[in-house]
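[Discussion] Sanity-checking designs against the backbone

I'm trying to build intuition for which residues belong where. Below is a structure token string of 373 positions. I'd appreciate it if someone posts a full sequence so I can compare it with mine line by line.
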């Protein structure tokens, strides 16, 4: 994740984004579409598992570990080793139960690895991201997150539809599981939403029933659906996605908000804001600071309580005339108690140290950039 400054969440303007304009091919009121494997269709996808990556699809492997990386419902044999100062990761790409010499690769400086593999009759493409490696002379350990980059693809009404095994369990399901949920990419959007029963595809709403192996989708067009417009206040041109999940539906406010979504109670799944090439995710708060449910009313413009004003949450201490705070526990929280990040202010992290100002009344007692120590 590239550097993203707190100031990028400053001046706020009303965002009104038109829905994606796709081909006018007329879809039947119901039927079945067949899906085929697409190795690279989700190569740039933002997914729920990616957005809350500190909690989903984590892996940890080492030189002496018998653990592997779970993909497509199977734990694939994985290991790590070190030679000099280079750490290598071995991954059983062909699914034969062993790691051959050609299945070892060094972990690059980008801390990401793209891996194509097969388990049983299922092919897949995954990306390992945010890889951290630790080693000594004889052994190595590495950990990070696994993202699915392949999908099952078809078209509905002339619009591309891709489903992703986002929780890596080898099945395509339309409900939340202990490991998370699966996802769907609609049209040309790079923001996948949780796979549910009802979605907007083009100008129409559909009820979908997905085959557990991802081979097909049964669909039924829902006519005359009441909707309410949904808006969010964010800096102009920075909102990349804002995904809401209802009882059996999911929508991206960025693409569906102006056209409207069905009335009901929705919760925040995730969102992404960016400036230039920097991207920052946000997700629902938890516990007493949980993000509220959004009750969308039909026939109305529903403006979400989200975004500004922002506040910094952190834990600080004072000892021997010095104020100290943990650089790894700082977070930005919005008006809807949504949490932005993960932010890492530590040395080598993804965001520059903030300026810390202490006031004595209105007089500035101290103003300096946070330093490591």
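Best answer:
Here's mine. Compare freely.
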């Amino acid at each position: 994740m590239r550097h993203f400054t707190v100031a990028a969440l400053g001046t706020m303007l009303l965002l009104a984004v038109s829905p994606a304009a796709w081909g006018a091919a007329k879809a039947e009121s119901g039927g079945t579409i067949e899906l085929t494997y697409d190795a690279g269709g989700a190569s740039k996808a933002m997914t729920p598992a990616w957005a809350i990556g500190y909690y989903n699809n984590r892996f940890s492997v080492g030189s002496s570990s018998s653990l592997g990386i779970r993909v497509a419902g199977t734990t694939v044999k994985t290991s790590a080793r070190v030679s000099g100062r280079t750490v290598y990761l071995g991954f059983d790409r062909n699914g034969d139960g062993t790691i051959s010499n050609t299945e070892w690769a060094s972990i690059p400086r980008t801390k990401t690895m793209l891996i194509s593999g097969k388990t049983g009759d299922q092919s897949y493409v995954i990306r390992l991201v945010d890889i951290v490696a630790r080693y000594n002379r004889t052994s190595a350990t590495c950990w990070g997150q696994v993202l699915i980059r392949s999908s099952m693809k078809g078209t509905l009404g002339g619009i591309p539809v891709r489903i992703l095994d986002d929780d890596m369990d080898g099945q395509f399901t339309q409900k939340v599981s202990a490991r998370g949920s699966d996802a769907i990419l609609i049209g040309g959007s790079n923001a996948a939403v949780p796979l549910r029963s009802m979605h907007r595809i083009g100008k129409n709403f559909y009820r979908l029933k997905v085959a557990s192996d991802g081979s097909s989708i049964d669909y039924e067009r829902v006519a005359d659906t009441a909707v309410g417009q949904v808006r969010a206040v964010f800096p102009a041109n920075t909102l990349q996605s804002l995904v809401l999940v209802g009882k059996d539906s999911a929508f991206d406010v960025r693409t569906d908000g102006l056209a409207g979504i069905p009335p009901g109670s929705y919760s925040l799944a995730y969102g992404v804001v960016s400036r230039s090439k920097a991207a920052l995710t946000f997700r629902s708060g938890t516990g007493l600071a949980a993000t509220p449910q959004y009750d969308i009313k039909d026939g109305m413009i529903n403006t979400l309580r989200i975004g500004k004003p922002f506040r910094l949450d952190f834990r600080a201490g004072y000892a021997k005339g010095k104020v100290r705070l943990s650089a790894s526990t700082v977070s930005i929280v919005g008006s809807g108690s949504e949490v932005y990040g993960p932010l890492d202010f530590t040395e080598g992290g993804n965001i520059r140290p903030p300026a810390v100002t202490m006031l004595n009344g209105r007089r500035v007692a101290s103003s300096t950039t946070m330093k490591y120590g």
